[in-house]
Fold:
Amino acid sequence: MKHSKKSQVAMEYLALIAFVMIVLGVISYIYFNKSSEVKDSLTNSQIDTISDEIDKAVNTLYSYGEGSQSLVKVNFPQNVESVKVEGRDLVFTVKNQKGGISEIAKSFAFDIKLGSVMTKMPGEKTFVVKSLGENQVFIGEKNSLDYLRTNVVGLWHLDDATNIIKDDAYDNFGSFDLESTPTLNFCTGKSGSYCDGNDLVFCNSGIQEARSNCNPKRCYPNGISSVCDEVCRETGKIGKACEIFESGFGGPSYLAGKGITIPYSPRYDLTNKITLSIWVKDPKIPAQGWIIPFSRQELSNPNVPYALTLCNGDSTSCGMLTRKSSASHYSGTTLNGGFVPNNNWHHIVGVYDKSLASNNLKIYIDGVLKGQSSWNEDLAFTPNANLLLGSIYWVDYSSYNVILDEAIIFNASLSDTEIKTLYAQQNNGYGFDYY
Structure:
């Protein structure tokens, strides 16, 4: 009898424990669901606050007129993954507490030019909001190199067929005439599955070409050929990038030495201080061949006042070439940097500063000084000479290809610290936006 009572008590105890566990489970389920809903609701509320703060600044600044700007400090919640622009909407990509992805769109009264730095989330951010006139505003994140923006004389994000033919430092904001707008000499891409053969691009003098034939085609700046689609662009260091083909690596021989031609602007006539900055990936160069990711073309003879170079096949070295006004050939230096193509992106910077007594010509790779030399001459003055990306005037013999991104010219000599900072920011996905 005692044994039976003990068994009954034990069973009742187990039943009670089971009941308690069920109740706790239900409570926990309700709690976590409600908690998730509360957190998601809080995220939506924070997005509303961000939009309200930006909208308030945008409307105030626009009433002040073109060029007016202010700073807006906001805090992005953890589960906001990115922000993009669709017309006049800021679209927030959000991951909810259950792992689902959704988009929340906030509308504004003006067209938005969005800085690429807004793709880096979450955390506290300080935004520059600027009125660009004509129902346009710029929104971009303030960073430690903002003061260098006044030294930018050219900026090419090379994102797609639209941005590749724009000098984002000026053309987007109307500070200079459209004479500074580059023309795209050819559109690039890969054949096969990389391109969609069902669509068309307008290359080769405006003739429709199936994108499955998207090896380099001759393009002309006639408005039609600019339709060349970003599908035929490589993934860039930031956004998209431009892949330059030459004969022997996917392109016909008539493209040798062409690259992207940027028409002359007096802004590029720099004589005693300059910094060239560009990202490159996977250069393929034969022995004795060159890649010129950045150069100034001189129309009257086969020389340039300044250029960044990659050369010598698998063990690629990089350097900066300079030429003085009185010289018929280069009077500068090529500094070996031990650059090795390994399918990764690398940041190359060349600096010249005549005002320094020594070690005033420098090459940096990935933020690290790799070579320096002394040279105290004015750079050659080359009126009406174009700027080239991915080529140089006379290098028709060279066969190569390379992917280029984020090209910038400064009319100043950046310091070691500034170059390290620029590398670190761009390496982490923060573009150098101009406003």
